[in-house]
Every structure is written in structure tokens, then in C-alpha cells.
Amino acid sequence: MTPVSDTVEQAFITPRHLAGGGDPGWITVPLHRASGWSYGHDPLMPRVLLTSPDQLTQLRLDPAPDEPDWWTIRHARSADHPGWAATFQNRTPVEIIAAFTDALTDPSGPPTTAPDPFAPLRGAGWVTPHHLGGLASPDGVARVEQLGTPGSDLWHIETGVFQDPTIWRAVFTGTTPPHLITAVTQSLADQTPITRDPQRVPGWSRNRMTVHLHHVPAPDIAFALERRVSALAARHRPATAAPPVPPSPSPRRTR
């Protein structure tokens, strides 16, 4: 058994859409170190700018006190795809945003058949709210909608309860590749708890979340980001070819 002195207390929070923002490095560090995105931000400004190796996509993290849309990801128009944009507000759990960026940087590319972003939610028991569109989480706190008409539509995710203001919102232009939106809805549908420092458990909607405190090995927390970077970097390494099989020796002729 691991001694208590070698453990760290962590809060395990469900549902994950109420876990709070978390550490932005969970997103920015792997983009730079595992996927080769370059940074060009001013070190004297409290913002981060990361650009993809092909110069088509930029992530901007701009923690402005009066603006909730801290995260913006824009992809320029290319020969085979129109431009698109995605925004996430500051209280969006970084694990949910990371699902988007991990899918975006996956070297295997998008699937041959466009997925349905609603499918993971239906499988997790999300339902259509009464007199409303889209799908709502079983606790009624989160809702995913597709608004507008094809070509000018928006995908919209919002969490909040009637008595409280919006907790966080994410918006995707209709030209955003469906597999990226589906990566987000898969993360929303995931029932695995999100871990946070017990001192940073959000204060909003506490009656809507379940929090369990557990002691976990300190190295699991200290090296979690390094393990994540290594796993994502491995996706970009070519598969190691099997060593060639040496030819069988020619049979010796006997008299």
C-alpha cells in the first residue's frame, strides 16, 4: 500500500461538464511539444497564441476578465475545406477542449464517413428537452443544439440551470469538421470523473454534482501531463518496421 505521505488528495467530479476549467497547460503544452505548434505570443501579455505547422490553424487563449470566450480556435480556408472557428468559454473543462484539439491534431485524419455528433449523447441517455431542440444531459444542466440552416448553421453547447447564469458555452461554426464536434460530444458523454484539486472544486451548482475525495499516488498527479505529451507525441512517430527475416541457409547437398 502507498504511504499516505506519498499520496495527494484529489476530488473526483461528476458530471464532468461541471468540473470547472482546470489547467490550460493540459491543452497548450501537448500542442507545442507533441504536435509541433509554434508559439508567437508576447511574453508580457496574458495570452497564448499557438499556430499549427501548416500555418492554417491558430489557437488563441485570451484570459480577459470581462470576456468569457477565452479559447478560440480558427482554421483558415483551404483548397479542400472552408474555414471554420470554435470558441470555448473560460469555465469549459480543459479535458473537453482537449478532446477537440486531440482530434484536430490526430495524424490519421478524419474518418471517411462523417460521424453524427449527437450519436454519443444518445448512447449516454441524453434526451430531447420538452418543446426544445437538440439533446439535454440526464441532469438537465447541459444541452447540445444545431441551430440555423445548412451552410449557415452553428453547433451550440451550453451548461447552466434556470436559477443560475450560464456556466460555460461552446460554439462551432457549421463548417467545423463533424469529427471534431463529435470528439467533444464523446467527452461530454463520458461518465469518467474529472479530477481537480479539492481547493479548486467549483462553487456553482454544487447540489448538481457528485464529489468524491480520494488519495492517489503523488507521481500520478506530478507526471500526468508528461504521460499525456508522450502518448500524443507517439501518434506522430512512424511505426517501427519489423526487422527483415534473414534468408534460410541453402540446404547442403549430400552425396
What is the fold's blueprint, element by element?
Elements: E1 7-14, H1 25-33, E2 38-39, E3 48-51, E4 57-61, E5 71-75, E6 84-88, H2 94-104, H3 119-123, E7 135-136, E8 142-147, E9 154-159, E10 168-173, H4 178-189, E11 194-196, E12 210-217, H5 218-222, H6 224-234
Antiparallel strand pairs: 1-11, 1-12, 2-3, 3-4, 4-5, 5-6, 6-10, 7-8, 8-9, 9-10
Helix pairs in contact: 1-6, 2-4
Describe the structure.
With 255 residues, this protein is α+β, with helices and mostly antiparallel strands. It has one domain (4-234). The chain contains 6 helices and 12 strands. The strands form 2 sheets. A 9-stranded antiparallel sheet has the order 2-3-4-5-6-10-9-8-7, with helices on one face. A 3-stranded antiparallel sheet has the order 11-1-12. Strand 9 and strand 10 form a beta hairpin. Helix 1 (25-33) packs parallel to helix 6. The longest helix has 12 residues, at 178-189. It is globular, with a radius of gyration of 22 Å. The termini are far apart. This is DUF317 domain-containing protein. Residues 51-109, 137-193 form the DUF317 domain. Residues 241-255 have a biased composition (Pro residues).
